[in-house]
Amino acid sequence: MKIPTRTCVACRKPQPKKELLRVVKTPEGDVKLDFSGRAHGRGAYVCNSDVCIQTAVKKKLFNREFKSSIDAETYNRLLEEYCGHKQD
Ligand SMILES: [Zn+2]
User: Fold this and answer.
1) φ, ψ of residue 50 in degrees (nearest 5)
2) Residue 1 above 90 pLDDT?
3) How much is the pTM?
């Protein structure tokens, strides 16, 4: 069986879907980490690694994925959510 892969927005490497974090833009326009992988909305994927997440935030790579301008506050929240998740 072929493993479903997605491309990380930061390093552009295809990875098995389950090893990536999903970031979702909800129909309400919220951008957040989707730990369930099943939230409604458009999804983008980033490696579950400090390097890729920090790159994505620093370079605002989700703007391109979601074709919208996402504010710095939202990017900071993504990082916080990621850091909080890591400690669980
Ligand atoms: Zn990556």
Assistant:
1) -55, -45
2) no
3) 0.91
